Amino acid sequence: MSHRGVAIAVLVALCVCLAPEPAAAQASRDRAAREAENYELALECRGALWKRTFDDATAAGLNPGAIAIDVDTSKTTKTRDGGSLLVAGVGDYRPSHEVQALPVRFECVVDIASKQVREVVYEAVDNDGNPIATPPTGIVRHARYVEACRSEIDSRIHSDAVDRGLSSGGSESKPDVASATVSTRGATTEIAGSGRFRLTRDYDWQGMTFTCRYDEKKKRVSRVSYRVDEGMSLGALSLERSRALAACRIAVRDAVADDAEERGYRWARRVVVKLEKVGDIVEQGQALEVTGSGWFKSDNRHDQSTPITYACWYEPERDRVVKATFAQEEGARTPSGEIASGKTGTLVCESRYNENRVCPAQIRGNVRVIREMGRTKCEAYKNWIYSLSGITVWGGCRAEFEFDAR
Q: Of these four, 26, 83, 233, 307, which has the most CB atoms within 10 Å of its CB?
């Protein structure tokens, strides 16, 4: 290359190096610098928010840890307005280990030039982001009481579930802290509010109201109660489980009536069956297994009932019961009012036109007449006797007998 060519190449290179930088690159560098500055200012806001929430919680007697609110500065919004930066976001507020964290929305205004925080505000919000009128410190103070009440409400709900024959677990309550009102008089604090509960995992959540009394001296709940929202009954099953229960109740009633008929009772339609308790409703393959307990009477004129337990299998896809069984409870009270040492049975045995009649049954002993059905009074050894294989009547004895079964 000639000397002239080298000179031209050097001149072109110098022109390229000295050319002004493109505007887009400069804007990108400015934006990066502004974002870095915004982040540093957001950290100033976070520190101010930590101090503010800690001081407020301490003043409210909550004994907070070093950090009362968890703030992720990378998830906050940062908006410049003149010489100020507005930092806003939502954080988890938990100034006491005794309660769960609750969401709070916060805003902070910081001067860009001096990096001094001018204002910090925060408020509690619900799950939809709507503000809650009660200050966060007040909600937490209420939450401490509500949490103490909740464990007692759970115990009460569990007892109600057991009383209904339920045992599958999952009974629990979820009181709404935001709804709670708290009033203290002397050493007693009264708490009232609303929320929801369920008897077991098989049952739907239901609305409730609750009241609770807290003893400040003993630091424990002294009384608690809850009730289902107006117009609702205790225990709301899902549609599928409601259908299973309804179908199984009919099937078990039919099984009891069929059993009475097989035992010689001719008026199966008179059999009274009440299935008062629903036990577990458990998925078993393609079916739902429904268990529970209740009682039956062979006739509504009997004074005493015979307790039973039942089990039923229902197929939701076919909307039908595939099997239903029942069993008399051990040690139960018999239809005649006596205490049964084991299983009991009943049968109707009739001597018509004074003929002898043998009625087969698996008898262990303790046979008694529980209902006369004819004009002639049935008297043991006079017109009826029994053996381990059945009861024999004659001379016009017509009655329903009860016995300890084998």
A: 307
Residue 275 token pair: 């299935």
In a domain, 147, yes or no: yes
Q: Is 298 helix (H, G, I), strand (E, B) or coil?
A: coil
What lies within 8 Å, CB to CB, of 33 at 6+ separation is: none
- Residue 185 sits at the vertex; the CA angle it makes with 97 and 60, to the nearest 5 degrees, is 35
Domain containing residue 217: 139-228
Last residue of a domain, one of 182, 208, 228: 228
The CA–CA distances, whole Å, from 390 to 13, 128, 345, 346, 368 equal 122, 72, 11, 11, 13
- Is residue 25 domain-resident? no
The answer to which of 9-23, 116-130, 221-235, 289-303 has the lowest mean pLDDT is 9-23
pLDDT (mean) for 3-29: 61
Host H or E run for residue 242? helix 239-262
DSSP for residue 329: P
Q: Where are the alpha helices (H) located in 60-195, listed in sequence order?
A: 136-163
Quickly state the pLDDT bin for 230 (edges 50, 70, 90).
Answer: confident
Q: What share of the chain has pLDDT > 90, as a percent?
A: 48
Give the DSSP H or E segment for 393.
Answer: strand 390-393
Task: Note whether residue 153 is domain-resident.
Answer: yes
Same domain, 121 and 152: no
Answer for the pair 328, 348: CB distance below 8 angstroms, yes or no.
no
Tell me the β-bridge partners of 274.
Answer: 295
The reported pTM is 0.54
Q: Which two tokens stand for residue 240?
A: 């599928």
Closest by CA position to 223, among listed 144, 153, 143, 142? 153
Inter-helix orientation angle 23-59/136-163, to 10°: 70
Q: Please report where in the chains the tokens 């009991």 appear, as a residue.
A: 344
| Sequence-ordered list of residues with C-beta below 8 angstroms from that of 146, at least 6 positions apart, any chain | 175, 177, 180, 191, 193, 212
